[in-house]
Amino acid sequence: MANPPQVETVTSGADKAKLAAAVLLLIGALAAYYGLSKQGALVQIASLVVLLIAGVAIFFTSEHGKALIAYGRDSAREVKKVVWPTHKEARQMTMYVFAFVVIMALFLWLTDKTLEWVLYDLILGWKR
């Protein structure tokens, strides 16, 4: 059996710095939100949003961010290839599932009652 090729990710120092900056901005956003509680809700929320946007923007300029964007684009492309069922087919399959659930519920109830009758009434003799 052949071994699959190993994928190695090489990140540059600049890429690592971008990721570190993004993490620091996210931590700074939380610190600013809680640290500026005496300044008012508007200042708190504004600092949180601005720092979060800056952190996310820096993340998306890194290799990991670009890979995430590419993954999202590929996923959207694959979803467009899916053949979705028609409304009639979806309704029919839903009814099949409901019918199966009802049949299974009746089967399990009947099995339970039969075992209860056999064990309690016939074997143990505990008549109700």
TrEMBL record:
Major place of residence: membrane
Pfam family, one: SecE
Native source organism of the sequence: Pelomonas nitida
Transmembrane segments: 19-36, 42-60, 93-111
InterPro entries noted in UniProt: SecE_bac (IPR005807), SecE_sf (IPR038379), Translocase_SecE/Sec61-g (IPR001901)
Keyword Calcium: no
Protein name as catalogued: Preprotein translocase subunit SecE
Record's keyword terms, sorted: Cell membrane, Membrane, Protein transport, Translocation, Transmembrane, Transmembrane helix, Transport
Localization annotation: Membrane
Annotated coiled-coil segments of the chain: none
